[in-house]
Design brief:
41% of the residues lie in helices and 15% in strands. It has helices at 12-23, 28-63, 94-98, 113-118; strands spanning 68-72, 84-89, 105-108, 120-122, 137-138, 141-142. The protein has a 4-stranded mixed beta sheet. A hairpin with a 2-residue loop joins β5 (137-138) and β6 (141-142). α1 (12-23) runs antiparallel to α2. The protein starts with 11 loop residues before the first helix and ends with a strand.
Length: 145
C-alpha cells in the first residue's frame, strides 16, 4: 500500500517525526496550533526558495545587459502571478528557456510604459526588491503582519 504524506516537501522521516508530535496532542486547538506552525515554516521555506530562484534569474539576465522589471503580488495570497511578475527584456518563450511554463516570468521585446510605471526596475543593487510578503487572512479579513 502506497503511503501519502501530508506535505510533499517533507521526506518520510520528517513527516513521521511531525506525525508523532501531532498524535501526542490532546486537544483540537493544540493540534491546529502545531499543524499551523509546521505549515507556516514550510510555507516560508517554499517562498524563500522560489523568490531566490526569481532573483537568480534576474541576476543572470542583468549580466546580459537586459532590462528586468518586477511587480510583487499584493492582491491575493498565492494568486495573480503567484509570487509576482518578473518581466525580462527579450523575445524568448518561457517554456523553451526553462523547459516548463513559469507563470511569474515573461519575456517582452519592448517594455511598455505601463510596465515602467507599475513595476520596479531591477538592477544589481536592488535585486532584493524581488520579494513576496505572506498575507494571512481570517474570516475574509487581512491579519496584521
Amino acid at each position: 500500500m502506497q503511503q501519502y504524506y501530508a506535505c510533499m516537501i517533507c521526506d518520510k522521516e520528517d513527516h513521521l517525526k511531525y506525525q508523532k508530535r501531532v498524535w501526542k496532542m490532546k486537544s483540537p486547538e493544540s493540534l491546529w496550533k502545531e499543524t499551523k506552525q509546521h505549515f507556516d515554516r514550510l510555507e516560508r521555506s517554499l517562498i524563500d526558495c522560489y523568490i531566490n530562484f526569481l532573483r537568480e534569474v534576474a541576476k543572470s539576465y542583468l549580466k546580459e545587459k537586459r532590462r528586468v522589471f518586477f511587480r510583487e503580488n499584493q492582491i491575493v495570497h498565492w494568486g495573480e502571478w503567484n509570487f509576482g511578475c518578473l518581466i525580462i527584456e527579450g523575445n524568448e518563450y518561457v517554456g523553451e528557456v526553462f523547459g516548463d511554463y513559469i507563470s511569474e516570468i515573461r519575456f517582452e521585446p519592448n517594455i511598455s510604459n505601463k510596465v515602467k510605471e507599475e513595476y520596479i526596475e531591477i538592477k544589481e543593487e536592488n535585486v532584493g526588491d524581488i520579494r513576496y510578503k505572506i498575507i494571512h487572512y481570517a474570516n475574509g479579513v487581512k491579519l496584521p503582519a
